[in-house]
Amino acid sequence: MALTSPAGRRGGKLSRRLSAALWFLLPFVLLAAVWVVIVEVTEVEMRIFPQITDVAGAFGELWSSGELFTHVGASLRRVVLGVIAAILTGIPFGILLGSSRWVAAFFAPLLRFSVALAGIAWIPLATLWLGYGERAVIFIVWNAMFFALAYNTMLGVQRIPTQLLRAARSMGTPRARMFTEVLLPGALPNIVTGLRVGLGYGWRGLVAAEIIAASAGVGYSIFLAQKFFRTDVIIAFMIVIGVLWLITDRAVLAPLERRTVERWGMKAVTA
Amino acid sequence: MTVSGATQRTRPAMGGFWWRRLGRSRVVRTFGPFVPVVLAWWAVAELEFFPAAFFVGPDVVVAEFAELIKKGILPAYLSDSVTRLWTGVVFGLLIGIPAGFLVAMSRWARRLTWPLLMFFQAIADIAWLPIVIVWFGFSLTAVTFVIVYTIVFPLMISIVAGVEQVPRDMVRAARSLGAGRFRVFTDVILPGALPAVATGIRTGLGYGWRALIAAEIIVGTSGIGFMMFDARRAGEVTGVFVGMIVLGILWFALDALVLAPFERSTIERWGMIQTAEVAR
Amino acid sequence: MSTLEIKNLHKEYVDAYTGETVTAVGDVSFSVDRGEFVSILGPSGCGKTTVLNVVAGFDKLTSGSVEVGGKPVTAPSPERGVVFQSFALFPWKTVLGNVAFGLRMRGVPRREREPVARQYLELVGLEGFERKFPHELSGGMQQRLGVARVLANEPEVMLMDEPFASVDAQTRRKLQEDLTDIFQAKRPTVFFVTHDVDEAVFLSDRVVVLSSRPSTVAEIVTVPLERPRNWRSVLENPDFRHTVTHLTDLLAGGRAHGEEQAERLSGRVDSSSEPPVRADAGGES
Ligand SMILES: Nc1ncnc2c1ncn2[C@@H]1O[C@H](COP(=O)(O)OP(=O)(O)OP(=O)(O)O)[C@@H](O)[C@H]1O
Ligand SMILES: [Mg+2]
Fold first, then answer.
1. Which backbone phi and psi does B188 adopt, to 5 degrees?
2. Which domain holds residue B25?
3. Domain carrying residue C253
4. In the sheet that C217-222 helps form, which strands lie side by side, from edge to edge?
5. Is C137 among the domain residues?
6. Considering only CA atoms, which of B79, B117, B100 is closest in space to residue B201?
7. Chain B contact set for C21 (CB, 8 A)
8. Which cell locations does it reside in (chain A) (predicted)?
9. How many CB pairs (< 8 A) connect A and C?
């Protein structure tokens, strides 16, 4: 999934970069222009749809009052904790399941069922078990990711070519080391997919859980703003959410993929 | 006459044979694993590891399930949820598939929309819920909007990727065999990208489905999500369990009746299994 | 003194789905001496790969015995390194990482294993590629890496299953010459599976010819060629051509035999007509 636009390949490196950047920005500029014109022409009320300047104003306000950082910080903290928990549990669990054909066949339908339910559908139960608050939200992020990650890891382990496992065994790899030497790197293309899918669920789970069970965070703020019809604040936070996700994708997932799966020439299954 | 060297057939032991046959049946392979899980669930509930206010056994859930059906609540809520999902999915596909191919085929459309696609996909659909409610109130329109939104972007991105994956040589082969631009599209690119459409629908539905549940939980007045959260507010764990199981079964049905057949008839039949294996 | 000793190897597979028993190897006995290069040749499907897999420890034999260095084979071990047709290099390890893998598994410290690994890379002509990843090498280079990876372990015997079948004809010739040179230099014990007669003769000291299934050893042919060998001189050598002709005849005989059987078999199915067969099949499923 490349973010760069398919701009021309001719020209020097610098001018190519520059033109790629311009092509990347152009659609946003056009969108903003359309936005300004439509709001001007239709004179729509601010409580229905704000002018772009209102959103910028709201953003400035949130920035200078420090509210932005409080909420983004609270959300990021939950995501990081939930994601770490999911990685530490989901990947080993998936590898364990994947290393036996029978165990995998047994767990596959159960995991598919769980993946379908993971995340948001657990909010009522999570808040019942853990009460409203931090723990329930983190639980939802973990839960949203765990199953997708475990399932994809399992598939990844099953897809490692038999010859590779045999090669490792015939070179005397002890059973315990198969885990880090072969199974983990071999399953990595699918693990990355699992991370991406799981983060998508986790992120959505976070927003939903914050709306219901938190008193800070981006989800909470956006919903609070809705109660006061502050569409400018809502849209400001929506943009923040989008940017945060793009940063996660660009700054964490993409480099991980470039350094491993792509570097090793293992074909990643993109979606 | 001796048939040395040919494959020797030996009749396998009867018991082993039935066992193996059972293990091969699709139904058993799919639902078999749930049997021990339900038994374990029941045992955990019976042994009262957790207080009954937090955890109930399958017997209680089944009783509540029957009760809710008898009262007509469950069928009504279920049909509400399914209607919302269905409406959203239909509109999502109607918009997403043509738009996806347009962006994939036209350089200009691609240049102008690709960054926006990435950005709008990044704004989690659930984040649209508040403003959509400002616009439409909590109505079918609001929920449809959110579901359409969740489906359209993954679908479009997936289709673009799918069209790009159609081997160049296949297009060249078609052209050198006399196919025009239009025929190349209908006969090579469209079928070649179908697996990607399947993947996109699966991804989109996975998200759309969550958006629906979230909408019902957060602002709902009916539907399975609402039922679960209503039960939670009343502190009735049984209702929450019933809701989760209904949701699970609903997804299984969707998977088995809609998604899987579509994937089987495209991806697997043409031996392009790769993308379908990824869980969503 | 023989390094690899195979006695009356017999192997049957039970098909997991139909429950049928398939005889992959009928009755095979032969041995490979220390420092000897032995190829096994036979019609497709006669069980060459199966023999190799049993020796490698990937498959269990049904009856008979396989001993390496006097010890019966039970599981895969670095004593029996395998070079795969599909290369089976670890894509996530660099060239150096792949060669050093076996040493690392044995717990050889980094400082000691790197020089060894480099030495073997040099042996196969891959010096300067240490930091590359396998997918950045050509097919021929990948397989040379596969050979270096096994030799670095200094195994009792190196097992090779059609290692050059997936590279182009030019490269194959080059790799075969490289392999004889390496063999000349290091004198490993090699057990080589192929169905290319020229290759078998060019590389080997002896060639074991299997009959079609159920496979038995049809003949063990000693190759009367001097070492060092290279294709240019070998192709002009009448001994080479004689041996190749002899082996080709052997294989052709085996194939004719197989066709005969197939005919007889189809004759049987026809003559015994359908009803009883159907009934039998119906009872089974
Ligand atoms: N895992 C297995 N299960 C069932 N039958 C098998 C299995 N592996 C091999 N066979 C059967 O055993 C026989 C011998 O197979 P093998 O792969 O050893 O032949 P081969 O001589 O290596 O053939 P080729 O030259 O084509 O590589 C074949 O008839 C094959 O169908
Ligand atoms: Mg073979």
1. -120, -55
2. 2-46
3. 230-285
4. C80-83, C157-161, C190-193, C37-41, C206-210, C217-222
5. yes
6. B100
7. 7-10
8. Cell membrane
9. 72
Among chain A residues, CA nearest to C155: A171
Complete DSSP assignment for B212-246: HHHHHHHH-SSSHHHHHHHHHHTT-HHHHHHHHHH
| pLDDT mean across residues, chain B | 79
Q: Say if the Cβ atoms of A120 and B274 lie within 8 Å.
A: no
The residues in C 23-52 lying below 8 A from B, measured between CB atoms, are 23
In a domain, C181, yes or no: no
Q: Is the CB of C195 under 6 A from ligand 1?
A: yes
CATH number for the domain that contains residue B127: 1.10.3720.10
Q: Which residues contact C202 (CB under 8 A, 6 or more apart)?
A: C176, C180, C225, C229, C231, C234, C240
C41 pocket-lining for ligand 1 (C-beta < 6 Å): no
Q: Which position has the token pair 């991370």?
A: A195
Give the tens place of pLDDT for each residue, A185-195: 999 988 998 99
Q: Structural domain boundaries of chain A?
A: 75-263
Query: Is residue C45 lining ligand 1, measured as CB closer than 6 Å?
Result: yes
Min Cα separation C12/chain A (Å): 20
Low pLDDT (below 50) residues in chain C: 255-285
Determine, yes or no, domain membership for B11: yes
**Model pLDDT, residue C64:** 92
Q: What was the pLDDT predicted at B267? A: 62
Flag whether B280 is in a domain. Answer: no
Q: Compute, in angstroms, the gap from residue C262 CA to the centroid of ligand 1.
A: 18
pLDDT (0 to 100) of residue C37: 94
Q: From the CA of C51, give the closest atom in ligand 1.
A: 18
Which CATH number applies to A75-263? 1.10.3720.10
